[in-house]
Amino acid sequence: MNIFAKNDPLATYAGNTWCPGCGNFGLLTAVKSVLKKFKETGRLHETLLVSGIGCHAKIVDYLAVNSFYSIHGRVLPVAWGIKMANPTLTVIGHAGDGDAYGEGISHLIFAAKRNTDLTLLVHNNRVYGLTTGQFTPTSPKGFPGRSTPSGSPEEPLNPIKLALASGATFVARGYVGKVKHLTNLIWEAVKHRGFSFIDVLQPCYTFFNTYSFYNEWVVEIPSDHPYEDLEAAFKLAEKWDYSSQAEEIPIGIFYKVKRPTFEEEALIETRDFDLFEHIRKFHQ
Amino acid sequence: MKNSFEFSVLFGGKAGDGIRQLGILWAKLLCRRGLKTFLYDDYPSLIRGGHNFSIVRAAEFPISAHRDQVNVIVALNEETIRRHQQRLSENGVVLCDQEIPEAQKAPSAQITVPWAQIVKELSAPKIMRNTAALASLVRFCQIPWEELAQTLRELAKTELNLSVAQKSYELSEKGHVDFPSKDKNQAFFFGNEAIALGAAAAGLKVFLAYPMTPASSILHYLAAHRERLGINVIHPENEIAAVLAAIGAAYAGSPAMTATSGGGFALMVEALSLAGQAEIPLVIVECQRPGPSTGVPTYTMQGDLEFVLTAGHGEFPRVVLAPGDAQEAFELTAEALRLAWRYQTPVLVLSDKHLSESLFSQNLPQQFARVEYKAWSGGQTYARYAFSEDGVSPLAFPGRKDAIVKATSYEHDPFGLTTEEPTQIARMQEKRLRKEEGLKRETEKMVGVFNRDAPVALLCFGSTKGAAVEIAERLGLRLVRPLVLRPFPTQTLQKALKGADRIIVCETNATGQLAKLLAFHGFRVDQKILKYNGRPFSVDELYERVKELL
User: Fold this and answer.
1) B525-543 tens-digit pLDDT
2) Are B399 and A45 a contacting pair at CB < 8 A?
């Protein structure tokens, strides 16, 4: 018995249970393409996925790589702890919008503030899928979810602005309708040293089908965008506030700068010590 | 009571007077003389003002509790005299500043020294009155100047401290106490330092904690010594991040621990279940303080016992260990790490303010537990949750070429892939719970027994040990202390309590949680001594409470 699927060395034998048309399939394809690059260079075993709870999280069951299937909202602290134990691992976190922007929002702010060397992909479908259709922090105002039948009374959160304000050193937005573009984004994010954040627009076919809206408004950020200019990044982020209207929906890298990582700044080389010498010195 | 020498001093003042440091220096100086000491620290939850006091008891025999009566009161303000003079023993003396107006009116014998004036003349900060006071006490106890000078050089480290001390020593008078001196130094540890060192000695490599009294000094100690001990010490955004990052680190191969008090532990409970399901070796230290809720932050209570025994949704094996003094805190925290790794399940160390923040002079054992685990030897496809006879699956860590390591919060198959299949669910549940058999076997003997044949048995857990040991000796009682509370050491306790006419349980909580636990496991409890005002039992108080019942 082994863990692999027939004919696919990157997949497990777990059967896929996403709905037909689910935006997660595009994300799975993009992540797989990135993992394939690691496999080709013999480094797949150095990669590790961490997920939260929700439809997004099933991705770790489908991929035959190291993974930690965490609890709702707690992707980043587990990923951070893994880096403490082994900073050489390439850790890719997966979270839903409920995970990252609801239950676990404090961890997102702090991962960005610390510049922890890992990547976070938020599978942002702007609805709770697995719990069957409630509004999330990024649902548009007025969204008729099952917990808000007369429409969400709250303005949506703009996670790009949040990540920028929190100090993330790589801030991007992707769209599962543009898989090749998304694959490149993830590859860039993984290569970046520090906290890489990608908000991935990923329609929920069953509870909030936004394909046609995104297809109409999504625009790739031009390559002459000043990536190190925070003000320019904020300006770009304001082109869409996650409502049902947009001037345009920029996708691509909003912001990218170099800053020492948490691992470089804070971690020490662990080692054993002489207890009795320590006691003689400090406790007698 | 034994005839050997013992001597207690109460140091009092307001927060910001350096009372705690003063008590610590005195205790350490006596440890260096080879005396056993115990420091009890009583302080309110504030930074300036209020009333702080420490009692340092010293003796020629082992002690781990304080007395109510003291031989000397060192008063840095008049409130100290007012509040505590009834504690003075027959020939007791108050040492105080000449400037204290109340000093003239107090009925007890007094020695006044111009501490404030000395500090002023030497242009030293006002807080150094504590050093001046220490020098007067040292002089009063007829301890040579050189001993004080050496302690100050090593522990206080400033020339100004020495000058203040010298001036005060010269101006102070000798008393009539003949302080013994032994050849051998005594080591000294706060309870939390012993917890930190026990973990470090066992192989801790990552420590995370969010500050919360009375657990914070574990964080402070490990942070201060992190380079020396070779441990990564990290203060995250909250307790939830602390415990989850510890889980992540352990999954990736680093022995990890976190520490908190009841409120912080409440936030960690969801992750405790995750560690149970994902079979993560996790150690959590819970230093209790009076609740519910914020309660009384800087005081003591054993009110979280039932909480730690049952916290967490779902059923999974866990261990709860309850040390009673610094030596046990060291040993049991090391053991906590060993058991967590041997059985890949959470282990809790239950302390309280009285253990965590009291200073003990005890020696640590030469032999102690270390992290060890069942390592995967390679070969076939790795299965993180492979079935095994003892429920423990071989461990591999992510990063090795020949293994895919999948941990998960979902019920899962041996590879760590989600399952909802009924047979698989039941088998995995049974696999995890099988670990309880090994845990039970390994912890069954963890019961402290003293005076095994005495007809009246006193039962307690945790920090109540200090006072209880002395009472048991003084009154000829049997003392029985479970050091492990889950799995419950039923057979060992049955043996330990065999033939007891009467079983008295004493604990510092309002509902008798240990007594309830004993009753649940079929033990008869005849009487309970409960204390729940935030203060620990002193030797004298417990003596009176037990005496009433006999």
Assistant:
1) 999 999 999 999 999 999 9
2) yes
CA distance A137 to A242: 10
- As given in the structure block, the two tokens for residue A17 are 């249970």
Q: What is the C-alpha to C-alpha distance for residues A194 and A66, in angstroms, rounded to an integer?
A: 21
CA–CA dist A107, A52 (Å, integer): 12
- Taking the CB of residue A132, how many other CB atoms lie within 10 A of it? 11
CA nearest to A156, candidates A23, A276, A245, A52: A245
Q: What angle do CA A12, A17, A23 make, to 5 degrees?
A: 100
List B residues 371-400 in contact with A (Cβ-Cβ < 8 A). 380-381, 383, 397-400
Q: Helices marked H in B235-384 — which ranges?
A: 239-251, 262-278, 305-310, 326-343, 353-356
Q: Kindly state the tokens that stand for A57.
A: 């999280």
Q: Which of A1, A48, A71 comes nearest B398 by C-beta?
A: A48
- Closest-CA distance, A129 to chain B, in angstroms, reads 18
Give Dmax (Cα) for chain B.
Answer: 85
By the 8 A CB rule, do B85 and B107 touch? yes
Strand partners, A69: A51, B408
CB atoms under 10 Å from CB of A184, counted, come to 17
As given in the structure block, the two tokens for residue A29 are 């394809």
Q: Among residues 3-62 of chain A, which lie with CB inside 8 Å of chain B?
A: 3, 12-14, 45-46, 48, 50, 53, 58, 60-61
Interchain pair B230, A272: CB under 8 A: yes
Q: How far apart are CA A69 and CA B21, in angstroms?
A: 47
Average pLDDT over residues B404-416: 98
Beta strand segments in B236-353, E: 256-260, 282-288, 319-321, 346-352
Q: Determine the angle formed by the axes of helices B465-475 and B539-549, rounding to 10 degrees.
A: 50
Q: Which residues are CB-neighbours of B490 under 8 A, at least 6 positions away? A: B521, B522
**The two three-digit tokens of residue A51, written as one number:** 């997920």
Cα separation, A226 vs A233, in Å, equals 8
User: Tell me, what's the pLDDT at B107?
Assistant: 66
Least CA distance to A43: which residue of chain B?
A: B401
Q: Rg of the Cα trace of chain B? A: 25
- Structural domains of chain A, ranges and CATH numbers in brackets: 4-282 (3.40.50.970)
**B249 → closest Cβ in A81, A268, A275:** A81
Domains of chain B from N-terminus onward: 6-171 (3.40.920.10), 191-361 (3.40.50.970), 447-549 (3.40.50.920)
CB pairs under 8 A between A and B: 182
Q: pLDDT tens digits, residue range B67-89?
A: 999 999 999 999 999 999 999 99
* Cα gap B190→B218, rounded to integer Å: 10
Residue pair B317/B442 in contact (Cβ under 8 Å)? The answer is: no
